Amino acid sequence: MSHTSIKEVFAAINRMQSDGVIDRYAIGGAVGATFYLEPVATLDVDVFIAFHPEPGHLILSPQPIFDYLTTLGATIEGEYLVIAGWPVQFLPPTNTLVEEAIAEARQTDVDGEPTWVFTAEHLAAIALQTGRAKDKARLLQFIEAGALDTDRLDAILKKHGLAKKWQKFERQFLKDEP
Amino acid sequence: MTFAMQDILKSKRALRERLAARPYAEKLRLLEQLRERSLAIAARSSSDQDGANPVSDDAPLRPDNLQDNG
After folding, report:
1. pLDDT of residue A59
2. What pairing do the DSSP bridges indicate for beta strands A106-110 and A113-117?
3. ipTM
4. With 70 as the cut, is the pLDDT of residue B60 above it?
5. Which residues of B touch A31 (CB under 8 A)?
6. Where do the structural domains in chain A lie, given as residue ranges?
7. Domain A6-118 has CATH 3.10.50.40
8. Are B31 and A40 inside 8 Å of each other by CB?
9. Domain boundaries, chain B
10. Which residues of A touch B38 (CB under 8 A)?
11. Cβ neighbours of A86 in B, within 8 Å
């Protein structure tokens, strides 16, 4: 099987950022969660990005990203760009929570390659907001691992209108109530 | 070693905590290995279902894989 390297993915994204194709970015999903938890098995990498809007276009387009990365050797598979063997999905912020998560992402380092990762509290809040079964399972992992600053999470949930959803989640999974 | 469920759960939790405490770069290397194994298993499962090699040397031992040569 061919070698795959997430570090090469980060290097390509950093290069794209320094060349001005994208603004800030942050790693989310399972690869982001792995920063705080035990390795979380996944087949792809979710990269949330602040897009540069093209002049005269109201709809944000990922085309500049696809054009840039394919010249570096990435290949296109459906919605994914395959970089260094990893399918990578570039996602625009769809709401203010994700915008804030990108803005407040923390910088880290992978064998000398800098990268940005969502905070644990933002990953948890996004998981709650998304609300699929696997997102709830991940949220429980964060709680069980003691990886969350509860005051910070509470503030994020209130700010983004997720307090009721959290109460329901709490009743269902943490208090064992219907 | 024991089969006491509480001890098993305790040791699983301890393993997860040890893994979580490792440096991010090391955890990402583990994640890469997990992904490669998942893809290998998926490819193997797919080829088994296609019936490309139903009785290979390393095929699981099942009654329908055993031939009576006697």
Report:
1. 60
2. antiparallel
3. 0.86
4. no
5. 28, 31
6. 6-118, 121-174
7. no
8. yes
9. 15-45
10. 41, 43
11. 35
